[in-house]
Amino acid sequence: MRLSRERIFHLADLIVKELGSTEGVVMKAPDDVRSEVIRALAEETKLEESIDGEVRKILGTYARLGPEGSGEWEVLYRKTREEVYRRRFRL
User: Fold this and answer.
1) Against a cut of 0.85, is the pTM above it?
2) What are phi and psi of 60, to 5 degrees?
């Protein structure tokens, strides 16, 4: 799922707020933590987009595939996505 810049900032704010209110967690530089959370969320979004693109490319080579969103397409998308994850991360 593609996250907009605003959504990433909002999620980062929520995460930092939750960390700040967690017992035993002390943040000396909340702005630095927020920046790092934003960076991590942005990287994760890029990774998800990359994997989605690779899966769609693979599915595009199939001769007989139902339309996108159909039950068959969803099952093949999920299975192909799992294969791409295993291949990329050696799981």
Assistant:
1) no
2) -65, -20
Contacts of 36 (CB under 8 A, 6+ apart): none
**Residue type for 5, please?**
R
Handedness of CA 8, 87, 89, 91 (dihedral sign): positive
Q: Report helix, strand or coil for 56.
A: helix
Asked if 91 and 85 touch (Cβ cutoff 8 Å), the reply is: yes
Mean pLDDT by groups of 10 residues along the chain of 91 residues: 88 94 89 95 93 93 84 92 90 63
Biggest CA–CA distance in the chain, Å, is 57
Angle, alpha carbons 65-89-58 (nearest 5°)? 20
